[in-house]
Design a protein that fits this description.
This protein is of the alpha/beta class. The protein is built from six helices and five strands. Strand 1, helix 1 and strand 2 form a beta-alpha-beta unit.
Amino acid sequence: MSTIIAIGSDHGGFDLKEVIKAHLIERGLKFIDVGTTSTKSVDYPEFAHKLCQKIQTGECSRGILCCGTGIGMSMAANKHKGIRAACCSDTYSAKLTRQHNDANVLCMGARVVGAGLALDMVDLFLDTDFEGGRHVNRVNAVDAFDEEKE
């Protein structure tokens, strides 16, 4: 994958984000860190918003968000047009959300998954392509909800 990945976290996901960044560097992948920059308490929606903007503008093709559970980040990210964020805590879901849902943001909880599992999920999320086929109509139906918001 030769695209740029956006990565972000709140204070609860900061340490996991740093582990993932080191892994992305090791893999030779480019990324943009949208913050936060420490374990000091912050509000997660701010960082979900910054990451989603990177994807919406085309600066980044996919994103990774970390917070305590991954749930708050996924809820905030999915409020953005064109974002299909999946909160995953296992490798099967991380792979299938790419294959079947064409997810463009992976959300994980640092208090839910360990670093090893998180890195496995990151690799599957980044290396798995959307299958298309019967899934295209379903993804298009989900994306159509964005138009209803306007």
